User: Fold these one by one.
Assistant:
Number 1:
Amino acid sequence: MVSVALLSTPWPLFNRPSIQLGALKAFLRREVRGIFVDAHHVYLGIAGTLGYDLYNRISVRTWLSEAVYGALLYPERQDIISRLWHKRPSRPRKPGFDEICRVVREASKAFIAGRDWKAYQLVGFSVCFGQLTSALYFARKIRERAPSLKIVFGGSSCAGDLGRSFLRAFPDIDFIISGEGEEPLAHLARWVASPGASDLPAPMAGLFFSGDDGSIPSEKSSQVPGLDDLPLPDYEDYFRQLDSLAPRKHFFPEIPVEISRGCWWRKPSPLYHHRGCAFCNLNLQWKGYRAKSRKRIISELKTFAERYRVLSVSFMDNLLPMDQSVTLFQGIAQLGKDLRLFGEIRGTASLAELAAMGSAGMAEVQVGIEALSTGLLRKINKGTTVIENLEMMRNCEASDMPTLLANLITQFPGSDEKDVEETLINLAFARPFRPLKVVPFWLGYGSPVWNAPARFGIKKVYNHPLYSRLFPPQVMGTLLLMIQDYRGSLKAQDRLWQPVKKAVKAWEKAYSGLHRGAKSRPILSYSDGGDFLIISERRYASEDMNHRLKGSSREIYLFCEHARSTAEIVGRFGGLGEEKVLPFLNMMVEKKLMFREGERYLSLAVPLRGYMRRRA
Ligand code: SF4
């Protein structure tokens, strides 16, 4: 019999169970005979004590998250860390940092004191974004109470050389799992469980320990071959913990569901020697791309909804699979449950795919828009163009489509005046749609930019200097960390992108101003009269405008709901000829009712009654 504790420490989103803990617990219970596994969602308890609103405000900011447990881990650095906290504009103003640390310290101590740690042989920490200092704090406190148990760290923050550096810097960690956790954790549990176990487990790809001979390269990992072979994640511990909270702290959680691991967007960059998006390091943990079958996903959703009595589901994939997504979402819709779904998609998803998602209950999609300059999209190897991005933004504006959430990356190394100029021009066409969130580029360990910085004009890369406020110098000397910083035109980039930041602020103001009120209409919409079309344009701080298109003008406008080349348009409306079509298209672009990129045209208004209702 072996007892294993799995911990997820603050600061993941409190309103959903940890998919890492759920998946690992289920796998261990299936694979290791006689095992007992406790999954401790430490973050839920801390959130309950701190108050959900305050917890949330800290948890969405990495430096705030790391600062709190940094101060608990190194109390002698409280003043330095407090200064870091006070320089973050997003920090909560009340209560103060010292008070937050006091409350979190007391709640954390109570959690530690409430368990018999000597009853476990192995304690595993899932360490993802913002969880490093909290995991280290709990590892140290658990180690003090049970010096002989084995402590293992895994998760995205421990991948490759990051994990190896933790082994050097933090003596409380016995093992690191780099990459997927299932197989190496089961290997460790079997080793711990075997009577008269050797001092160290047999070597395995993806498992590092301080006494290993380094013969297994950091980039190797052990993966299960197919995701359908995995057992259903076990979220019982989270729901039991939630039930044990005072009734006023109860809420309806979201269920995390994983359809795939890795990312299928692996197209080589036309400019540099890498695959996928240049800024992205989300797939450090996975080698290749694997997805569950449609049948498995639908049955998982059905089981979760019925077992836990919840309808909100977050797909945890870095990118939802797109092949067969129409049939997948049609199958989900056929479950007949009013699910509320969230997922991440590329900007190339078609209207049919979006419509299938919408009818299955996809309420929000995080879309990889990233830029409104085709030159910049090429530099980051997004594989999209502005006209495709605008088409996606417009489609999501319709009443029956998922709401779009998306970023606009500024200050990407190597971006120039031309990219900014193009962005500003195109922003004027994007104004009817939900504003993008400005996100300044940050350098992530393992991203293509980090791997080949010189190609992007970067001179030197190093750990982000804010880490040196958290960790003492002797620890910093050996650490390699997730958030990196660099030398190379940072200030120039910041100056360059100021006009875009200003334009996005104005866009946000106009958009929210026009969407005040419960039943606000899209800013740019059309109503179809059969042989004529009325386009309604709502304008901020100005009179609204209407435009009527008749006959072939109407038909061309509807034809260009999907971006069309001049040749396609002329081919379709051959009777008119280019000399008649082009002046119409140019006039529509002039009025910002259509967008042109090169030879392609896109209509910007959405059907007032929604795409699905229009087609019904
Ligand atoms: S940003 Fe998204 S699409 Fe691009 S490589 Fe990362 S996961 Fe894939």
Number 2:
Amino acid sequence: MFDFQLDRIVAWIRDGGYSSVALQLPEGLKIRATEISDFIIDSTGVDILVVGYPCYGACDLYDYKGKTDALVHFGHSRIPSQGDDPNVLYIESRSDATMDASVMDVLGDLPQRIGLLATIQYIDLIPAMRSILESTGRTALVGEGDRRIAYPGQVLGCNCSSAESVIDDVDAFLFLGEGDFHPLAAAFGVKKDVIVLNPITKEVRDMAETRDRILRKRFAATQSAKGAQSFLVIVCSKVGQNRSAEADGVISKIRSHGLKAYKAVMEEITPMSLMAYRVDAYVNTACPRVAMDDSARYERPMLTIPELDIVLGDSEWADYRFDQIRP
Ligand code: SF4
């Protein structure tokens, strides 16, 4: 069960004296929007505006100013480098799952030095998992991330700096979370084994096969972009995905190779939003996972920033780098 902290939201709205509040939920939690609205309206009488746009991270924070007095953002932690706004409340929707020593039965034979990672929903389990591993005589390390990361050990789909900070001191990483999206960021970023433990089902799996399958697709994308004469360089207008400076660098680099580059700003990157542009390939400076995970949806090759270097011959496939958004 995920905790929506409705009483905390109500107290925060009353303390702030707000009369209108926007609610922003990721896709998987939008189903709870009406029920959460009912509770808040019945408890406080405020006007509620449910943000209907797709939301995939705190990188995508709704610009509530001029529309409501405040914003409640669900399902993600704040991104410290985006600053602190007292009128924005983050409800991280943490899980109440627990962990005990019996988990070692499903984890099997782990190496001696383990780095611990988690999504925000399971970040509270890191201390318990650390104690369990240490009780078996192993070393368990939890790395500090950069300013895009709110908590030690936390991983975003575009940033695994908390893993990088302990990479030289661990043999493998144990990731607490569900799904492939976040552990894949660690698996792409650190080039060490990443073992995933689902804290609910206690299923254990290694990310190597999934990572290698996606890397093969990325190799195919870079191969098919070789020979491209024109590139659309995509800049995202979302606050936490805007890499305008990097996009300008990309454009200069493409032009220095005698090729054509065009810059386009967009909010949502979809096959439809790219359909009109007559170019041979795209370079996506927004969320890197659009290219990494969804490339099959696009008619032309979509590259990340480091992949462009491979296409232009400025770096080798053997030096493949995961495109991370830094603070
Ligand atoms: S940029 Fe992409 S991976 Fe990073 S937080 Fe936003 S949605 Fe997640």
